[in-house]
Amino acid sequence: MNAFILQFKRGTTLCLIVIALNCFALLPIPKAFGVVPAPDGGYSAENTSEGDAVSGAEAPINTINGFQNILVPPVQAPESLLTLDNGTIRVGVDTSYGGAITWLSQHGSQTNLINDYDHGRQVQQSYYSGPANFHPPGTIQNPDWSPFPWNPVQAGDSYSNSSQVLAYSNADGVIYVKTKPKQWALQNYAADCIMEQWTRLEGPAVRVHCKLTNGRSDHTQYPPYGQELPAAYGVGTLCRIFTYSGTAPFTGGTLTQINHPLPSGGFLATENWGAFVNSSNFGVGVHHPDAIDIGAGYFNAGSACTGGPSDNNTAYIAPVHVEVLDYNIVYEYDFNLIVGTLTGIRNWVYAHHSDHRPDYSFGTSRGHWYANYGDAGPPSGFLREHLNGPDPSLLSAHTAFAASACPKIYFAARYVMSSPPADPSAQFFWETNNSGDFSETRSKTVTVIPDGRWRIYSFNVGANAAWSGLISQLRFDPIQSGGPGDYVDIAGISYRNDFSTLLPATDLNDDGKPDYVLYNPSTLQTEAFYLNNNLLIGSGPGPTLPTGWTLAAP
Predict the structure, then answer these.
(1) Of 294, 327, 407, 423, which sees the most CB atoms within 10 A?
(2) Which H or E run contains 334?
């Protein structure tokens, strides 16, 4: 077990929430959506990559989660609150708090459900990476938050300095903010990243898309950390916290009440949501469509189940993924806030829940997997995992899908190794029913060919009787052992054999390079010629064409 630390911000006192996740003991640690405005580059002098200011031209974003075109104006003087109201709920995004959500209520109500006690509360983006104690020369670190890792926070820092909003708009039903965040533990120190956020309303739900663009001068690939996605703080009257943590998600099973004080631990929310509610079971649901792990708890500063936005009592929920945040990563995710009763919140989630069957494409994202020996950085077409020693492994986030829905697991990979491995096999492990461990009995192996060519392999997991019940986590060991400089490129891991686009249509020997076919019009015999660019490396007879057929280019 490894512990990944999330912060609970309570005034100036250091409190840590340790999220214990099933991870490798050997660790030292959105699918991404394309949206515009385009991310900044290096952010020198806090400029955008295009110039000194964001243009006022209309900037389109895609329609993921229903977002339409919005207008992004030049930098303006912050307003106290940007609001949306759809007749069901009202949300407020505060540009004087870095664009964090500071208001959430029913339509027409003056009862705010969000805690705003200090700059570490609200509903906001908060990310973590190394070093374990981020304290650059010349900076002032809060002694109550020391040592503390790299932690940009959307609203501001522990000294009550607000993050800088670089641009914002409130048009066409969408609030957009672009923020230069502060480092939480340091005094008035701007983080070397940019946060963006798009917020809209849909019935009783606030639908939010978040984007982090790193531009760190420190290029070290630090171990993975637990990320708050988002950090959500409710008022003190919402003192009852519920989730579903059973092994039959989306079947209406009994909810689990979390009766833990803050700082607290981690829980498995197999329906991807938690809610803080009052004694009448009314409150706010926090839903992340991909996250099973959540941090949750209640802080009682004196009189439980009391307190408003400016009071210290608070309820906390943070969906969690353990992620490597590279110096240049663009990381995106979605979350939803649902206002209503427990029943209404759960019904909304059921109507919007994700398909958890394993279908991971590593074209632009790690898909919440991480490697014990690290990798070559953010994927670009594939994930390059280092195979630098014994038992190299990839670990997935927690998941929740029925084993019966996926009798086979496929992966597409090419291996580059300095010498033939003693045991050229890959192994696939699974955890069932949130048991918390992996074992040889719950695994399948397949022989791999480490020749540098793209190949598609499959694990016949359904042939193992232990592939049953709820599959709750996955582990992939691409080879039994490797050496310095060895690596594997992985295009994806999926229950679907859908990797045909990896290989050229004319690739006849699965080496990722086009080949050539000729045929004899008299005998209709075909012959395949295997090429390495323009070099002939082999040949072989192909099928004889049926009478009346000819050979045509694809």
Answers:
(1) 294
(2) strand 330-341
pTM value is 0.82
358 SS3 class: coil
Same domain, 319 and 424: no
The single residue listed with the structure tokens 């009314």 is 282
What confidence tens digit (pLDDT) does each residue in 155-214 have?
999 999 999 999 999 999 999 999 999 999 999 999 999 999 999 999 999 999 999 999
Residue 128, phi then psi, degrees to nearest 5: -135, 145
Given CA atoms 231, 233, 239, 242 in this order, what sign does their dihedral have?
negative
Question: Is the same domain home to 346 and 382?
Answer: no
CB atoms closer than 10 angstroms to residue 282: 18
Query: Could you tell me if residue 16 is inside a domain?
Result: yes
The total number of structural domains in the chain stands at 3
Helix (H) or strand (E) holding 127: none
**Separation CA 502–CA 512 (nearest Å):** 8
Same domain, 57 and 138: yes
Among 68-72, 312-316, 522-526, name the one with the lowest average pLDDT: 68-72
Q: How far apart are CA 195 and CA 231, in angstroms?
A: 14
Residue 342 lies in a domain: yes
Between CA 411 and CA 349 the distance in angstroms is 30
Are 379 and 281 within one domain?
no
The span from the CA of 437 to the CA of 36, in Å, is: 41
Q: What are the residue ranges of helices labelled H in 396-501?
A: none
Among the candidates 502, 527, 544, a domain finishes at: 502
Strand, coil or helix: 461: helix
**Pairwise CA distance, residues 436 & 2, whole Å:** 12
Q: How far apart are CA 245 and CA 296, in angstroms?
A: 13
- Cross-strand partners of 277: 240, 283
Tell me whether residue 37 is in a domain.
no
Does 164 share its domain with 305?
yes
What tens digit of pLDDT does each residue of 366-411 get? 999 999 999 999 999 999 999 999 999 999 999 999 999 999 999 9
Cα(366)–Cα(323) distance, integer angstroms: 9
Beta-carbon count within 10 A of 96 CB: 16
Same domain? For 542 and 435 the reply is: no
Buried/exposed code over 173-192 (b: 16+ C-beta within 10 A; e: otherwise):
ebbbbbbbbbbbbbeebbbb
Q: Percentages helix, strand, coil for the chain, rounded to the nearest 5? A: 5, 40, 50
79: its two tokens: 């307003």
Question: Residue 147 is part of a domain; what is its CATH number?
Answer: 2.70.98
Q: Judging by beta carbons within 10 Å of its beta carbon (0-12, 13-18, 19+), is residue 98 exposed, middle or buried?
A: buried
Compute the distance between CA of residue 31 and CA of residue 396 in angstroms, rounded to an integer.
14
Looking at the fold, whether 397 and 535 belong to one and the same domain comes out as no
Same domain, 481 and 509: no
d(CA 29, CA 224): 4
DSSP states along 363-375: SS--TT-EETT-B
Q: Domain with 377 in it: what CATH number?
A: 2.60.120.260
Domain span at residue 55 reads 2-31+42-351
- The answer to whether position 36 is within a domain reads no
